[in-house]
Amino acid sequence: MTPNVPLIAVERVGKRYPSSSGPVEAIADVSLTVGEGEFCTIIGPSGCGKSTLLGMLAGLVPCDSGRVLVAGAPVTGPDPRRVATVFQDPGLFPWRTALENVEFGLELQGVPRDRRRQVATDLLAPLGLARFADKYPRELSGGMRQRVAIGRALAIDTAILLMDEPFGALDEQTRVLMGEWLLDIWRRTRKTVVFVTHSLHEALALSSRVIVMTARPGRIKSVLELPQPYPRAMESADLVSLRAKLWGEIREESMRSMER
Amino acid sequence: MRARTRSLQVAILLGGIALWEIAARAANPLLYVPPSAALPALRDLLTLTSYPDLPSHLLLTIQEIVVAYGLAVLAGLGVGFGLGLNRVLGRVYAPILAALYAVPAVVWYPSLMLFFGLDAASKIAFGFLLGFFPITLAVLAGVRQTNPQLVTVARAFGARPHVLFVKVMLPAMLFTLVGGLRTGLALSVIGVIVGEILGSKSGLGSLINHAYGLARTPDYVALVVLALGVVVSTDVAATLLERRAQRWTAE
Ligand SMILES: Nc1ncnc2c1ncn2[C@@H]1O[C@H](COP(=O)(O)OP(=O)(O)O)[C@@H](O)[C@H]1O
Ligand SMILES: [Mg+2]
Q1: With an 8 Å Cβ cutoff, are A80 and B157 in contact?
Q2: Is the Cβ pair A108, B171 closer than 8 Å?
Q3: CA-CA distance, B195 to A213, in Å (whole number)?
Q4: pLDDT tens digits for A126-142?
Q5: What is the dihedral of CA B162, B168, B173, B175, to 10 degrees?
Q6: What band does B109 get if pLDDT is binned at 50, 70 and 90?
Q7: What CATH number does the domain containing A66 carry?
Q8: Contact at CB, A108 and B172, closer than 8 angstroms
Q9: SS3 assignment, position B41
């Protein structure tokens, strides 16, 4: 790949959804690029179109205007060889065990049974799920389910990992631990991660760049570069002032989003 | 636990038979056949002394059931998925189907006999009609209850439509679908036998009608028990199918 083509390029995309009270403009005129190996976080009030934007990157939501390019080629549909997604709702298949859920993507790609079983088994250990391989989703806690969903996305070993509020349903402590664990994976695999969250702490602890979106219709409000090394000392003067700045921007948009 | 349930079931069965014997003797044993008279009649039936041509009647009934149910499954799956996966068609036709299902099916039988005559065809048509609705409605319900998030996930991982159907839709709706197939089977069997009772010269139902008409009540009871046996054995077959389906989705 030529070095000056960004891995992901979003060019002036917009999306409207039909609704009973006329079309709803979910996002408008969003442009951004994500370079290889970045951990890019998108943060914004709920309903501002974060999931819609991620869906466009995944090839699941068609753009009404503009386009998305991955490695220079326009996205026309899901491309599981390049992009893996962890959804806000983990969407595990209830009739498959944890292990079989992790195998799903490899199965669709026609990877032989023994091989995919091996890959999935190797993934379950670092996910803390080794003892739960044969459990069904209903037998797992919320955090475990989300880890299975992450395992399912990691199993197909793509260059790009999209994550939509993956830890949103977890308690604060589990969240922090999962964040540390994800950071570790990201630093080892050098995947490009686009991560949606509504947690300031997560955004500041994990990202190399934070993109703040406005209230609906979602546009890009500001971009924050975070060159600070990992693991980050969240109490350092640097990060405390960044946090205040970020909170100021998000607060403004959240208020606007509540007022309508 | 299982053994206890079993012995309880046997006890209830024996108790029921004893009550039946007492009640029938107290009343008129000619009309209310006691088990002591039904059992010899059943033996005569099974040894082909009372109805020597029973095998050919039974074979005909089973053939009618197989054809009626086979057609009901094909049509039920076809119409169910056609309406379930096509939103516009589904909105138009699904309520009509549900309304038709609510009509007592026997009202259709006279017109089926007019269309298909007195022989096997009208029995097959009736068995088909009874089996078709629960299968179709189960498929419709199954499609509707499939979690759309699972479809989204599968698409994200590269599932094409036929893979989506086999790996997501079918397993997601399996229990509803198998339930519908079972109900459909039971109703197809009932449809065929009732059709034979209502008007036919051959088949198990026609023998029931014959015994009843000649007031051969012990034979009548023995034939009803045999019909019960047919229904129960199809249900056992359905249970085996259900187990297999479960194992298949687990794979
Ligand atoms: N499939 C859809 N149909 C109609 N409206 C939708 C659909 N998906 C999202 N929306 C609307 O678009 C807006 C943005 O949604 P979403 O992208 O989920 O936001 P976020 O993830 O930031 O909470 C919301 O107002 C939501 O109600
Ligand atoms: Mg969302």
Answers
A1: yes
A2: no
A3: 68
A4: 888 999 999 999 999 98
A5: 110
A6: confident
A7: 3.40.50.300
A8: no
A9: helix
Do residue A110 and residue A216 come from a single domain?
no
| Interchain CB contact of A45 with B (< 8 Å) | no
The verdict on residue B30 lying in a domain is no
**Residue A32, domain extent:** 8-82+160-258
Among A residues 184-223, those touching chain B with beta carbons less than 8 Å apart: none
Chain A residue with the nearest C-alpha to that of B152? A60
pLDDT digits (tens, 9 = 90+) for B178-200: 889 999 999 999 999 999 998 88
Looking at the structure, do residues A171 and A150 belong to the same domain, yes or no?
A: no
Per-residue model confidence as pLDDT tens digits over B119-175? 889 999 999 999 999 999 999 999 888 999 999 999 999 999 889 988 999 889 888
Last residue of a domain, one of A118, A142, A157: A157
**Whether residue A237 is found in the same domain as residue A115:** no
Number of domains in chain A: 2
> Candidates A48, A54, A220: which one to mutate for ligand 1, based on the most atoms within 8 Å of Cβ?
A48
For residue B81, give the CATH number of its domain. 1.10.3720.10
Strands A209-213 and A220-225: antiparallel
Distance from CA of B248 to the nearest CA of A (A): 10
Kindly list the residues from chain A whose CB atom is less than 8 angstroms away from the CB atom of residue B163: 108
Percentages of chain B per state (helix, strand, coil), in multiples of 5: 85, 0, 15
What confidence tens digit (pLDDT) does each residue in B223-236 have? 999 998 888 888 88
Positive or negative torsion for Cα B162, B168, B171, B173: negative
